[in-house]
Each structure stands twice: as structure tokens, then as C-alpha cells.
TrEMBL record:
A GO MF term: 2-dehydropantoate 2-reductase activity
The EC number(s) this enzyme carries: 1.1.1.169
Protein name as it appears in the record: 2-dehydropantoate 2-reductase
Gene3D superfamilies cross-referenced by the UniProt entry: N-(1-d-carboxylethyl)-l-norvaline Dehydrogenase, domain 2, NAD(P)-binding Rossmann-like Domain
Organism for this UniProt entry: Natrinema hispanicum
Function description: Catalyzes the NAD(P)H-dependent reduction of ketopantoate into pantoic acid.
Residue ranges constituting the Ketopantoate reductase C-terminal domain according to the UniProt record: 176-294
Amino acid sequence: MDIVVFGAGSLGSLVGGLLARDHDVTLVAREAHARAVRESGLRLEGAVDDGPSRVVPAATTDGTGLEADLAVVTVKSFDTAAAADTLATGSIEAVLSLQNGMGNEATLATRLDASVLAGTATYGAILQEPGIVECTGPGEIVLGPRDGGSSARAERVGEAFAAAGLETTVADDMPRRLWEKLAVNAGINPVTALTATENEAVRAEPAADLAHTATRETARVARACDVSLSNREALAAMETVAEATAANTSSMAQDLAAQRRTEIDAINGYVVEQAAENGLEVPTNRTLTALIRTWEQGRGLR
């Protein structure tokens, strides 16, 4: 399969590197990383299996005019529209979003004449330096049609990922899975970002109550959007992730530490927007969103 990974940072490089063991892969990445991969290949380190530790995908900074059976999109949520417009200049048969937050699939679908799949990824990854990506923890790719149900295309993509050694599940309930992931992120990410703590912070007071409330609010909004996600299920998922990644720094906490724009609009901000459309109040998500947006505005990031 010909595969483009658009936004090959940490996760994109890990997924793309593993796929390159069995498929023709092109990484669309920043200049330093793309140059290192072109010159010396991509080195895979950490919790990967016994396959090749160095692969040689193609790499470019220019995502225009590309042709592929599949594009895996791993850019930040606020760059989704620009990524879609760039991919639209080429010929892409299917697109899989492995991004944080909600709304990415809809953005891709409105700008691309391609089948759009939704996905989640729990692999831990760090781009150690240009040309070197480390898997910091094994995980799973879950993918399926963005509106739920099954499709032959999703099955083919799942088979391609599995053949490359990626733990992969093809699911028929992606809307619910995306909302569950959103509930987890809504509870963990802004709390750890604002307090400069690791994920374990939300497992104990005083942060636990705040994180739990944000998660419960998100589950309530999911149900208002006709997605079956109970408070108990959402909280259990959040606790499981917080325990499994206790020593990790959330992506939003990493963004604040690096003085970068966050994905708050597609996480807690999305909860606030959907709550308003359904006549619900989500005061904890609203407060967390306002605090992160204020931080961004104060640093000229908005």
C-alpha cells in the first residue's frame, strides 16, 4: 500500500516508520527531520518489536501533489484544514485521522474527495532528534468509519497496519470511542498543563475532583449528541489512562512547557461548543478552556 503520513512528528514518525517495514511510505515532516530521514533513514528505538530498527521511507516538507492509497493525518487539530487543502492538490483514496480532539474528521471530509476514517492511537512516542523516534510505550491503533458501522476500506487499512506489526483493531463504534477519548483528554490534559504536572496528578486530590468533573461533563454532552457514554464508563477510561501513563507528560502540558499553541479548541473547547448547542452547562470545561486560551493569548499564540 502507498501511504502518506502528513505531520510526521513523534506519533506520525513512529506509525509511519513501522508501516514502512511493509509498505511504501512518504513522511511529510519539518525540514530538519525530513532531511535526516532522506540522508540516513529513520531509526526506531524503544518499545518496538524485533523488526528492523532502521527504515527508509521517503520524506518531504512539501505535501502538495502526492498520490497515495491512504493518507494518515497526525497534525495538530488547528492545522487540519490546511493539511486537508494541501492533500487535496494530489490524489488520495482514503484518509485516516489519528489526531487529538474532535471535529478533525468532519474538516477532512468537507475538503477532500476521499473516504475519511476515524482513529485513535495509544502508542507513546517521542521524536528524540531529527531522524530518530522512540516508542515510549506499546499501544494500539483503533480505526473505523467516522460515522460508525463497517466498511471494506476500513478492513483493508486495518489489515495493512496489522501486517506492519501495529496492534490494530477495526471498530464499528468510532463515534463512541472518539467521545470516550475526548472525555479522557478533557479531564487530564488541561489540569496537568496548567499545573505543570505528570498525568498521575489527576489520580489524587486536589486535582482528582476537577478532572473527574470535566470528564463527567463531557460524557453528559456525548449523550446529548446521541452517543452512548455513561459517566461511569468515561471515568473508568480516564482512571485507566491516568494510571497507565502516570509518569507521562500530557501533550497539552508539553505544549505549555514549550510555549506552543495547544489543542484546547478541539478538546475542552469542543465540549463547551457542543454543550451550548444542546442547552447544557459545563462550567468546569468552560473554566479550563478560558484559562488555557488566556495563556495562549497572553503569549501571542491566538
